[in-house]
């Protein structure tokens, strides 16, 4: 599946989730389809360019409603602001650059959630394994001025 091809109709997406079609919702989903893994702040900035005055609080409300309805996925890489995307339900994972924060999709090698079976599930019913690969993106690897390591990490 190529997410850049034939973006699903945003209005249909909202209706299928039982959400009313509103200007801000259409703008936010449109932004997320064009710019997956955006933070709420950058969604708000782009949504304003598309749809005129949309408050950041409205954008948060839309993201919250769409995440709750299952048409937007929220990911929170450690130490980073929450990011949002409209690619849901396929258990894909993410590669995150430690230096610049760029986030890209990687397909799950296993395909079904959870792709990691813990050695001990402690009686939990598991429906998701959140896998984040951390490293340096190509651009940052070739940029001598970018710090290569973070020192703020605490080993649990
Ligand atoms: Zn980078
Ligand atoms: Zn993704
Ligand atoms: Zn996987």
Give me the oligomer status: single chain
Low-confidence stretches: 1-6, 150-156
C-alpha-based Rg, rounded: 17 Å
Strand line-up in the sheet with most strands: 1-3-2
SSE succession: HHEHHEEEEEH
Which small compounds were modeled alongside the protein?
A: zinc ion
**How far is it from the N-terminal to the C-terminal residue, by CA?**
36 Å
Looking at the structure, what is the overall shape? Answer: globular
Provide the helix percentage: 25-40%
How can the largest sheet be summarized? 3 strands, antiparallel
Structure class = alpha+beta
Taken as a percent bin, the fraction of beta residues is 5-15%
* Number of continuous helical runs: 5
What is the average of the pLDDT values?
86
Count of β-strands: 6
Observed structural traits:
156 residues; alpha+beta; three-stranded antiparallel β-sheet; three-stranded mixed β-sheet; disordered N terminus; binds zinc ion
């Amino acid at each position: 599946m190529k997410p850049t091809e034939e973006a699903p109709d945003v209005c249909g997406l909202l209706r299928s989730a039982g959400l009313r079609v509103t200007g801000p919702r259409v703008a936010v989903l449109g932004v997320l389809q064009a710019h997956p893994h955006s933070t709420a702040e950058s969604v708000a900035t782009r949504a304003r360019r598309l749809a005129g005055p949309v408050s950041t609080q409205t954008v948060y409300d839309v993201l919250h409603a769409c995440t709750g309805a299952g048409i937007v996925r929220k990911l929170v890489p450690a130490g980073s602001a929450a990011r949002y995307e409209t690619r849901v339900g396929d258990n894909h994972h993410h590669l995150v650059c430690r230096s610049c924060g760029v986030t890209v999709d990687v397909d799950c090698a296993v395909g079904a959630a959870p792709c990691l079976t813990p050695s001990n599930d402690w009686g939990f019913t598991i429906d998701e394994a959140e896998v984040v690969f951390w490293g340096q993106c190509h651009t940052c690897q070739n940029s001598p001025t970018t710090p290569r390591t973070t020192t703020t990490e605490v080993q649990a």
